[in-house]
Structures are given as structure tokens and as C-alpha cells.
Specification:
It is built from 22 helices and 2 strands. By secondary structure, the protein is mostly helical. The protein has a domain of about 120 residues.
Length: about 500
């Protein structure tokens, strides 16, 4: 081979090596940027929804550095509603993050359509310094939300046992989940939790593990447990709640789903199960149910998801939001049998609730007015709103509409001091409508006390239980005072 041919071949080999090295650096940069991007989304979700802090981790500090260094998101204002076509519009939409309390990246991450902008930011030179700090902190296990950074260690360790296992972590997670299922069928619930956490640590994107695991904890494990009376519960500082043997499983399920959301912030099922299955169904915590169901419909979702949000908004007293949501839903799905049958009923119900609210506000304003003429005008207006509400509930029909109408009639009788008649109407209404049982029973006790009517033994015990509701051993003083004030207002 001639000398110039050898030189040409050597030059070609050098060029190929440079290209391979450059491509290797590019691949490594992309992989590191992807892990950094995932961590940014997890940190943003934590900032907006959970605000969990721990002194041993540096997530909050690093996230603040990212926001301080970010300029490309300046002026990016997230839309009030998500772009997904099935999300409710206008008043029925969930509110955007509060700009005063949520960072720039946190606001942008609220809408999944901004993900390309956040990804471009994660891999840009703009965040080169925070990205490098992320790598260092993740390798030293100082970041709580860096679940997918193990590849960096695997790359540096060469071919070894860890590297081989890392390649099969999803397979290992599946095998562990089989063991979790076996423990459940064997009745060994106490052995499940540790393995469930190991499974999701190996594969943080195993969404079904989070969903089924939380269902086991909140439903199956607690199915035969009795609810713990409030005086027997103890304050759990980790979960910030009063818990007994049964209730602690609800909060472990909540924590498990929150970890799933941090690792999979674009999966609506995790938000939905947290808001509906746990907060609504098990804890009757409607503000938190609305909070997480609102996040569920920000992601691509099935069409039945918004319906549960609107129901929880109604239960939480957000009648205007629920009404706007149902009206939007009915206009979107006119062709569906479900939309035609369900939405109009809930629309009428929320219209009636809104009129009841307006009537109550007008009665209060009339009582506070100093001018007799103005007071009379406001009272007439209140009576008109109340009459319109009764007409809507009459049109609504069914035992549900009848119970709501009878509730108004009982209120009118109580205003006339005819407490015995009011109690009789409410007693019939609550037996006809299980959904309103608690509300109507509470009104019966209120009217009996106002009218000096004798309380039954069960009602006396219920009043005593309500005095202790929300109180438990070991509560912080500030939390105890807050609960006592709420109980006093309710009773």
C-alpha cells in the first residue's frame, strides 16, 4: 500500500473515531438531559401540589437554581384550561397555578402542551450549571425525585453485576409484582408494602403497580376493619393526620400515589385514583378530591373523568363551577346517551343549589339592612330565589328532587317556628334519599335543639361524637385549635 493511501486510511480512521466520540457525547448529553427533564417535571409537580420538604434532600434548592437561571420561559403564561379537547371551558375549568406561589417552571408544567418547551430548556446551555449539579447530587443520592439517574452510575461502572441487573430492572419489577400478588392472595398483607415500594423503585414508570397497590391499601386491606373512633386515633406527623389502624392505610395509599404522580406527572389515572378513590370515596375530603381531579383533566383523559370532578365540586359547595362544567360537558357530548341522561339532571340540581345560595345570601343581607324598605326588597328577592329553586327541584323529579324540595319546605317551616313539622318532613326526606342522609339528619338535630324538642339517644350520642370529630392524641396545638373552631361553627 502506498504511503498516501496509508495516510488517507489513517485520516479516515481518525475522522470516524472523532465522529463516534462526538456521537457518544451527544447521546450521553441527551440521556443526562432526559433524566434532568424528568426530575424537573417531578419537582414542579411537588411544588404545585404537595410541597413536601425534607432536610436531607436538595430538590427544592436545585429547583430554585433552575428557575433563577431560566429565561426562555419568561412570558410563557399557562392557559387557564388544558388544551385537551375534552376538558371543560370557561368557569368550569380548574384554576391555573397561582403565579405568586408557584415558580415559572412550575406554572409552565401545569399544561402538558408546554412539555416541549421544558424539554428544550432541560437540554439547553441555559441550564448547563444546574444540569451538572443535578448529576452530582443524583449520584450522591441527595435528590428525592431523581429516580431514573442510575444509568450514569451504570455507564461509569463498566460491565458488572449492577450494570447487568440495571438492564433487566423492568423484568425484575414484574417478578416482584407477582410476589406481591401472591402475598395478597395468601392474606399476608403486612409483607406487601415493602415489596410494592421495591417494585416501583426498580421501575418508577410501572403505573399499574401504583394503581393496584394503592387499591389494595385503601380498599382490600381495610375492607373488614372498623373505623377508628376519633378519641382513639393518634396524630401521625409523617402524614399530618389523625389515624387509627384502618386510617393509616389510606394515608400510605395517598403517599404511594403521590410518588407515582411525581414519577409519571402526565398520567391522569394516578391523579384520578388519588382524588376519587381515596379522597372522595374513603376520606370524604372533597377539597382535596377537587384538587387532584382538576389535575387529572389537565392530562389527556377519558371522557368520564370530568364527571367525577363536577360531582366533587358540587359536594364541595362549588355549584357555579360544577354547573359550568356540566353545561360544557353536555354541549360536547350531545350524541352520547350518557351525556344526554346524566348532564341535564346535574345541571338542574346545581341550578337549584345556586338559587338556594342566592336566597340565603339575600336573607342575610335583609337581616343586616338598616333601611326597612331595602330589607323588605331583599327579603322578597330571597323568597323569589327560593321559589325558583323549589320549581327546579320539582322538575328534577325522582326521590332526589323531592328530598331537595322538602329540605327547602322544612327550612320555611323552621323559620315560622314550626319545628315539629320541619323535623317530620326531613325525616321522610332522609329515608327517601340516602345521598342526603347525613345532611338531613344534621338539620333534624339542629331544629330539635332550636325548638327544644327531645333528642333520641342516637342523636345525643352523635352530637357528643361531633364534638370530638377531628381531634386525637398528640395533635399540634395549632391544629387542635383550628379543629375546635370548625366544630364550634358546625355545632
Amino acid at each position: 500500500m502506498k504511503r498516501y493511501q496509508k495516510l488517507a486510511l489513517a485520516g479516515a480512521m481518525v475522522l470516524i473515531l472523532l465522529l463516534v466520540a462526538g456521537q457518544g457525547r451527544r447521546v450521553r448529553h441527551l440521556r443526562e438531559s432526559e433524566a434532568f427533564y424528568r426530575w424537573m417535571l417531578a419537582a414542579a409537580v411537588n411544588e404545585r401540589l404537595f410541597q413536601d420538604e425534607s432536610g436531607q434532600f436538595k430538590d427544592k434548592e436545585l429547583f430554585e437554581q433552575c428557575n433563577a437561571a431560566s429565561q426562555s420561559l419568561a412570558g410563557l403564561v399557562p392557559a387557564v384550561t388544558a388544551a385537551h379537547k375534552e376538558e371543560p371551558k370557561t368557569e368550569g375549568a380548574p384554576p391555573a397555578a397561582d403565579p405568586g406561589t408557584v415558580s415559572q417552571i412550575g406554572q409552565a408544567s401545569q399544561e402538558y402542551k408546554n412539555d416541549p418547551r421544558i424539554w428544550a430548556l432541560a437540554r439547553s446551555s441555559e441550564l448547563a450549571s444546574p444540569r451538572a449539579a443535578f448529576q452530582t447530587l443524583a449520584r450522591s443520592r441527595q435528590l428525592r425525585f431523581a429516580q431514573d439517574i442510575q444509568y450514569a452510575e451504570a455507564q461509569e461502572s463498566g460491565v458488572g453485576l449492577f450494570n447487568l441487573f440495571f438492564g433487566f430492572r423492568k423484568v425484575a419489577a414484574n417478578f416482584i409484582w407477582i410476589q406481591v400478588d401472591r402475598f395478597w392472595h395468601q392474606g399476608e398483607n403486612y409483607r406487601m408494602i415493602a415489596l410494592m415500594k421495591t417494585c416501583t423503585a426498580l421501575d418508577p414508570h410501572f403505573v399499574e403497580a401504583y394503581l393496584i397497590g394503592s387499591w389494595h391499601l385503601a380498599y382490600n386491606v381495610t375492607a373488614k376493619m372498623m373505623e377508628t373512633p376519633w378519641p382513639q386515633r393518634k396524630w401521625d406527623a409523617k402524614h399530618g393526620a389523625c389515624v387509627g389502624e384502618k386510617e393509616k392505610y389510606y394515608h400510605v395509599a395517598i403517599a404511594f400515589l403521590k410518588d407515582g404522580i411525581r414519577n409519571n406527572p402526565r398520567n391522569y389515572k394516578l391523579y384520578f385514583d388519588l382524588g376519587f378513590a381515596v379522597y372522595k370515596q374513603k376520606l370524604k375530603d372533597y377539597p382535596n378530591a377537587v384538587k387532584y381531579l382538576s389535575e387529572a383533566i389537565r392530562q389527556p383523559h377519558d371522557r368520564w373523568v370530568p364527571r367525577q370532578l363536577f360531582i366533587c365540586q358540587e359536594l364541595n359547595g362549588q355549584y357555579a363551577e360544577a354547573l359550568a362544567g356540566w353545561e360544557d360537558y353536555a354541549s360536547r357530548f350531545k350524541e352520547t346517551t350518557t351525556g344526554q341522561d346524566v348532564a341535564p339532571r346535574f345541571i338542574k340540581r346545581n341550578q337549584g343549589h345556586l338559587l338556594e345560595q342566592k336566597a340565603e345570601a339575600a336573607f342575610k343581607a335583609a337581616a343586616a339592612a338598616s333601611d326597612p324598605a331595602e330589607s323588605d326588597r331583599l327579603r322578597q328577592e330571597a323568597l323569589k330565589f327560593r321559589s325558583q329553586a323549589k320549581e327546579i327541584f320539582l322538575v328534577l323529579g325522582s326521590t332526589e328532587g323531592d328530598a331537595l324540595r322538602m329540605r327547602i319546605e322544612a327550612t320555611e317551616l323552621a323559620e315560622q317556628k314550626r319545628y315539629m313539622e320541619a323535623v317530620a318532613i326531613l325525616d321522610k326526606a332522609r329515608w327517601d334519599s340516602a345521598e342526603l342522609w347525613d345532611d338531613l339528619s344534621h338539620r333534624i338535630m339542629t331544629y330539635k335543639k332550636e325548638g327544644n324538642l327531645p333528642l333520641s339517644l342516637s342523636e345525643q350520642k352523635e352530637i357528643e361524637r361531633e364534638k370530638d370529630a377531628g381531634l386525637c392524641t398528640g395533635m399540634p396545638d395549632e391544629e387542635r385549635q383550628r379543629v375546635l373552631q370548625e366544630n364550634a361553627q358546625r355545632l
